[in-house]
Every structure is written in C-alpha cells, then in structure tokens.
Write a structure and sequence with these properties.
Chain B: It comes from Streptomyces radicis. By secondary structure, chain A is mostly helical. Chain A has 14 helices and two strands; from the N terminus they run αααααββααααααααα.
Chain lengths: ~350, ~270
C-alpha cells in the first residue's frame, strides 16, 4: 500500500522536474530571441523592433528593400546582426566551457582561460602583427594566428602536465597558470620590440576581449565549433557528475577518468581557441555563469549544460549592448561591462542561496 | 527489506596481486578467496595494503602482476563499465565537488548501466528509493549532499553503491563517521544482502560480528584467513597489530570479542 503511494509520488516528481526544465528552456529561448531582436535594433542609429524584424526577414528571404532603407539595412544586416549573433555564440560557448573546465580541474575558480589558452592566443595574434606571419591569409591572418597560438598553448599545457596518472586536476591548473606567465613574458618582449603601437593595440584587444571584429566571414566557423562542442559536452553530462564525486568513486562507477579528462581537455581547448580567436579573452562569463546557473537549478550537469548556454547568451547580448551604447561613439571593453554588471548580481545570489561548492 | 535482487552474487578471487609504486611493494603477492554470497573482512594495520587490494578490484589501480577474478573470469579484461555493473565500491572518498541533491547522488549508482543521457527507468527510480530507505536517508532525499554531516553522507554513498546492483560489494571502512546505531544498521544490512561483500574494517569486534571470514593483512601479504573465532586470537593481535588483547566470546552470539587495556603492562599472563 505504502509502496504504491511512494511510487505515485516518485512519478509525479519526475513529471514535475521534467516539466520545469522544459519550461525554463522555453522561457529562456524566448527571452534570448527578444534580446537579440532588441539588441540588433539598438545603437547609435536606433531601429524599431518591427523594422529590425522586417530587415532581417528581407535578408533571410532575399526580399527587396526601399532605396531609403539601404543604409539602415546595411547597419542591421552587415554590422549588428553578426555582432549580436557572435555575442550569443560566445556567451553560450564560454558558459558551457566554464562548466566543463570546472569539472575537469575540479576547481571552482577555473574559467575557460585557466589553462593558458587566452595568453597563447595573444602571443599568436601579436606575432602576426609584429612578425607578419600568415600574411597570405590577408584579413584572417590575425584570427588564424590567435587560433594557432591558443591551440599551441593547449598542446604545451597538455604535454607539460601529462603524467603516469593521466591529467590530474592540480597539475593541470598549476601548469596552465605557470605557462600563462611564460606566454605573457613572450608577449611583453614582442610588444617591446615592435616598432609601432599596433602590437599594443592587438594585445589590449586580446586580453580584454570584444565583439567589434564580428563578421559574417568568421561567424559560421565559431558557431559550428561551439555548437558541436556543446553537443559533445552535453552527452558527457553523467560522467561529469560522476567526476565531481572524486576519482576513486568515478573508477568504481566505470568511468575512465584519464580518458574523460583527455577528451574534456581537447573539446574545451578547441572551443575556447575558436572563441578567443574572434573575440579575445572575454572574462568573467565563463567563471561565473556556471555558478549562477547552479545556484538557480542545482548541480546536475544534465540541467546545467542545457541552461548555462542560454543564460550566458542572454547575458552576453545585453553586456555587449551596454558596452557599445553606454559611452557611444566610444566602446567600452566588454570584459569591463561583464564584470561590472555580473559581479553584484552574482554576489547577491550567492549570499541569498547559501551556495556550497567543494566543501568536504 | 532485501536490497539487491537483480544479480546473483559472484565469487571473487584475488590471485597473487602485486602492486609496486616507485619501487615500493604495496601488495606483495596477495591471494584471497571470497565465496559467492559471503561477507569477508579485511583487517590489518595502517599501510598493510587493505585499501590497495580493494582499489585493484574496483579498477582504480591496475596491479603490477596478478589478477582479480570474478567467477573465474579476469575482471581486468572486462571493459570498465561492464566491470562496474558487477562490482560496486564505497570508497574512502566522502566528499563531492558539487552540491548535488541526495537523490541525484544515489541515482549516479546507475551510471554504469546507462548510455549517454538515457533517463532512469521506473524500476531504477524505485531501486533508488528502496536503497535510500535501506540506508535511512529518505528524509534527506532533496537536501544538498554538501549540507549533510559526514555520517549522513557516508550513508548516501552506501545507498549509491547498492543502487549499482552489484554482484560484489566492496567497502573501505564503511563505518567511518557513522554513529553507533547506523554502524550496526549498515553492518546488519551487509549480512542481509545476498551480495558478495569484501569489507575493510578497523574495528576487529565489528569485523568478528559481521564477517563469515576474516583475512588479516600485514606488509602487503595475507597473514591468515578464516572464520573470526579461528583468526582473531590474542596471539595474532599481538603479532600483527603489536597490541595486547584479551579475547572473550560474545555472551549472546559467541563471536570473539577483544578487550584492550591501555597500559601495555597490565594484562595478567602477558606474553
């Protein structure tokens, strides 16, 4: 008798939980679409959401536009749309990578750049500026240089931290942090030797990050890498949960911790490399969005990996909007905005919910 | 009240296990048989290789030489997930990086049985509920594991191991952190389940109460193994642990019980 009651209760809770997640996803997708539409319309030249939608519709379906509207159309379609979409991609991607990297190195302070990827990208980009590498690639040389630098840094961290026990969390973090100092030193030398201020500018862009370089040319590549990476990581939700219980327990549950860490490292490095190459190292988002989402919906990766990208994307769209409009026509560095807006929100939530992480 | 029902218990055999790390032999040719359905205890001083032996069985460690056999099949030759479907472990890790709910942690016991993000079936959900009831943690189901006391968490992790529906259950000092009542309850649960159990215990009296057989380890080797009343003698305790003890039969069960005196010179007839 009591078993039947308990069974009914289990089933009801199951339905309620699944329903809640679907509802959260639907609501966030709606908010994201609305945010994108608004953000594309807002800027030095403000376009009403209805007109924005009309222009987007025309662009997507190949419709015609009145001659008067051409400038507006250009701004909407060539400048703002790729930028806002890049905000979506990078916001979602950094949040997901943050979740994965925190699980990979078992450290609450980890973010996508803790393994030296961003400083590697900076070295790559600055080398292009100073030494003229990859000149044959034209305008894409800088992006390509940053990507190569990011991957080279990842490979170096991987090799340097690899030991008989596989990739152990602490070795990874220590190696990443140590090598980041090395890369920064190399970068300083390059800047010091550079004949003009161009290198300094490149360094600034890659260390603070920004979406000003968004274009239809680079967007599909980043979007594809991030989307595939997100799908792969989402399939690893359960092993990620298991990893949080500790390596011994993970082994007893049939999870090959060394193999999972290796895969996580490769996937997160590729995703971070692709994002850093086009947007630099936008801080804060990848560190804090994972925590924010866990505060709101709990720690289970099956939920966090679905909701974190949506929350991150919405946050990034608005942060970029603030960055490009608040002091217009000048642009604030995006990393500054993400921190100024995000930190108070995060602190408030953390205090209210009694959030726990890694207490033993 | 029986928890495991799906899988028949398996016979476990440690066959000349040798583990060397940086030239140190943690295990120096350990052999031990655990018959199907038996509860076998591993006792021995610190560093005698008890945990190392368990780690070889739950695949956290690959023995330098020797094999672990499950019903005569080489466990090391199985894919990890397949092995984890047959062998569950309650390790000494008592923490979690993330604040999962108790119910979520218990459900992770199904991880080796599920592919990708496959959801738990109804039977598996009920299995979780039953394991939580058996370990007296149902009232904590929606609490975060990081808000629990060490003992409560230990019971949650034990429930997780039972949810794995193993043929062999390994426990490394399962009574750590547990209060007296829950120590007794956990050990009587081990007696009740049909699963084969290999358990590391420090408390020799609890080991005598719960185990069919006890294996005594020292220096990575098996000193002796057998039923508690044959193994737990004053002589052995002195030789292996360097402690003088008086052995008396339990007035109710007849199991050997050890009484200690703190001062080494006190016991009469000291050898």
């Amino acid at each position: 008798m009591s078993t039947t009651v308990a069974r009914g209760r289990t089933r009801r809770r199951e339905r309620r939980e699944r329903g809640a997640l679907v509802l959260q996803v639907v609501a966030l997708v709606a908010v994201l679409l609305l945010s994108v539409l608004l953000a594309i319309g807002l800027g030095p030249a403000t376009v009403a959401p209805v007109d924005t939608a009309r222009h987007l519709w025309a662009a997507l379906t190949g419709g015609t536009i009145a001659a008067d509207d051409v400038t507006e159309y250009q701004i909407i379609w060539q400048v703002r749309t790729p930028r806002v979409l890049l905000a979506v991609v990078v916001g979602a991607g950094l949040s997901v990578v943050g979740v994965a990297v925190q699980a990979l190195v078992r450290n609450a302070l980890a973010d996508p750049f803790v393994l030296g990827v961003s400083s590697g990208a900076s070295v790559g980009a600055v080398s292009v500026t100073v030494l003229g590498a990859f000149a044959s690639l034209g305008v894409h040389a800088l992006t390509f240089g940053a990507f190569v630098g990011a991957l080279a840094a990842s490979a170096l961290v991987y090799l340097a931290s690899f030991s008989r026990a596989g990739l152990t969390p602490l070795r990874l973090v220590l190696t990443g942090v140590a090598l980041a100092y090395g890369f920064q030193a190399v970068m300083s030398v390059l800047v010091y030797l550079a004949p003009d201020g161009e290198a300094t500018h490149a360094v600034l862009f890659w260390t603070l990050g920004g979406l000003g370089a968004a274009s239809w040319g680079s967007l599909p590549v980043v979007a594809a890498v991030v989307a595939v990476g997100m799908a792969v990581l989402h399939r690893c939700a359960r092993p990620l949960d298991v990893l949080a219980l500790g390596d011994e327990t993970a082994a007893s549950l049939g999870v090959d911790t060394a193999a999972v860490r290796g895969w996580l490292f490769v996937v997160t490095s590729l995703m971070t490399g692709a994002m850093v190459a086009v947007s630099g190292a936008i801080g804060f988002v990848g560190l804090v969005m994972p925590h924010l989402v866990r505060i709101l919906v709990g720690a289970s990766h099956a939920r966090v990996l679905v909701l974190a990208p949506l929350v991150g994307a919405v946050f990034m769209v608005w942060a970029d909007l603030v960055a490009r409009t608040l002091a217009a026509p000048r642009e604030l560095p995006l990393g500054v905005v993400t921190a100024l807006v995000g930190v108070p929100v995060f602190l408030a939530l953390m205090r209210r919910r009694g959030y726990l992480f890694g207490v033993r | 009240m029986s928890t495991s029902n799906a899988k028949a218990p398996a016979a476990l055999r440690l066959d000349r296990l040798r583990v060397e790390i940086d030239g140190h032999a943690l295990l120096a040719g350990l052999s031990l048989d655990v018959a199907a359905g038996q509860v076998v205890g591993l006792v021995g001083p610190n560093g005698s290789g008890k945990s190392t032996a368990l780690r070889c069985v739950y695949r956290a460690l690959r023995p330098t030489t020797g094999t672990v056999r499950l019903d005569e099949r080489d466990l090391g030759a199985l894919p990890r997930r397949d092995a984890a479907r047959r062998v569950a472990a309650l390790t000494q890790e008592n923490g979690s990086e993330l604040d999962f709910t108790v119910r979520e942690v218990v459900a992770l016991g199904r991880a080796p049985h599920l592919r990708g993000n496959q959801a738990l079936s109804r039977r598996e959900r009920e299995l979780c509920e039953r394991a939580m009831a058996d370990l007296d943690v149902t009232h904590l189901a929606d609490r975060g594991v990081l808000t629990l006391s060490g003992g409560e968490r230990q019971r949650v992790l034990a429930a997780r191991a039972l949810t794995q529906e193993p043929a062999v259950l390994l426990l490394d000092e399962p009574t750590n952190h547990l209060d007296l009542r829950h120590q007794i309850e956990l050990l009587s649960l081990l007696r009740r389940t049909p699963t084969t159990v290999l358990v590391v215990l420090h408390d020799l009296n609890l080991a005598a109460a719960v185990c069919d057989r006890i294996g005594v380890l020292a220096g990575g080797r098996l000193v002796t193994a057998g039923p508690p009343e044959r193994v737990l003698t004053a002589e052995l305790v002195r030789d292996v642990f360097g402690v003088t003890a008086t052995v008396v039969p339990h007035p109710l069960t007849g199991a050997p019980q050890l009484l200690y005196a703190l001062s080494p010179s006190t016991p009469p007839g000291d050898a």
